[in-house]
Amino acid sequence: METTDSFILPGLKPVLELLRENPGRIDQVVCRKGGRSPELLEIQELCRRNHIHYQLVETPALDRLCRSDRDRGGAQAHHQGVVARLASISTISLDELLTSAGSAPLPIIVALDQVKDPGNVGTLARTMYALGAGGLLMPEHNSAFLGPAALRSSAGALGRLPIARATNLARALDEAEERGFTIYGTGSGPSGPVLNPYVEGLRFPSVLVLGSEEKGLRPGVAKRCSHWLNIPFRRDFDSLNVAQAGGILLALAAAHDTLHKSLSDD
């Protein structure tokens, strides 16, 4: 778990108050295993109600979390059996993202399926913002923490790019398709035509779904993709990481779009 003094909130009362008043500021809650106090039980109930991931750990893990915070310059923290990790990036609703993405310079939403490396997400966000992409869609759980590491690698782009969190990514893709977005998966898909992005442009507006380098897309997410993009390699090589693959696909989509507009003007 990544921690800094700016993003750790320890203690029963502070965490409980934030959950009651502004749960959107919380990315994750870590609770002491076996704790049965009324406050801890209410914290877990509020996490479930607000779709906030919480984890049960032994006391030494909480101690290490707070010790790391102190070693980075924070004050001595008394966790009282609970620590919240605060989200550093504000998000918008899925409806807002789908509405705004259609008018972006490059009307593509990038959806990340269980991509957990914050450096990759930050690097990809930097490319997305520069090329005019419509925004980023991430699952609420099992995604990279958009904290200091992601912010550094994005060079500030994460603070400017529209970002939405989905409780269920597959259902979010269904909603995007109903709103007129074409859903593109990456790699060799189980169904639908596999397109060469060097040759084929994308239909706009669209959602480009990227999975983790190790596992790719989950089956339930892959089923929502109507088209598949596969980057042809000119040398024998295993794979690209998500930031590299996403950057290439976005750049190719932008190039096709620019060429199409140029030919239309002529």
Structure description:
Helix 1 runs parallel beside helix 2, helix 5 packs parallel to helix 6 (148-154) and helix 5 runs parallel beside helix 9. By secondary structure, the chain is an alpha/beta fold. It contains nine helices and eleven strands. The strands form two sheets. The protein has a seven-stranded parallel β-sheet, with helices on both faces.
The arrangement of helices and strands along the chain is EHEHEHEHEHEHEHEEEHEH
Strand content: 15-25%
C-alpha end-to-end distance? 54 Å
Give, in spatial order, the strands making up the sheet with the most strands. 7-6-5-10-8-11-9
Mean pLDDT: 86
Radius of gyration: 20 Å
Search tags:
11 strands, 266 residues, 4-stranded mixed β-sheet, single chain, alpha/beta, 9 helices, disordered N terminus
Topology:
Layout: E1 8-10, H1 12-21, E2 26-32, H2 38-49, E3 53-57, H3 59-71, E4 82-86, H4 94-101, E5 106-113, H5 118-131, E6 133-139, H6 148-154, E7 163-166, H7 169-178, E8 182-186, E9 194-195, E10 206-211, H8 219-222, E11 227-229, H9 242-265
Parallel strand pairs: 2-3, 5-6, 5-10, 6-7, 8-10, 8-11, 9-11
Antiparallel strand pairs: 1-4, 2-4
In summary, what is this structure?
The protein has 266 residues and is an alpha/beta fold. The protein is built from nine helices and eleven strands. The protein is elongated, with a radius of gyration of 20 Å.
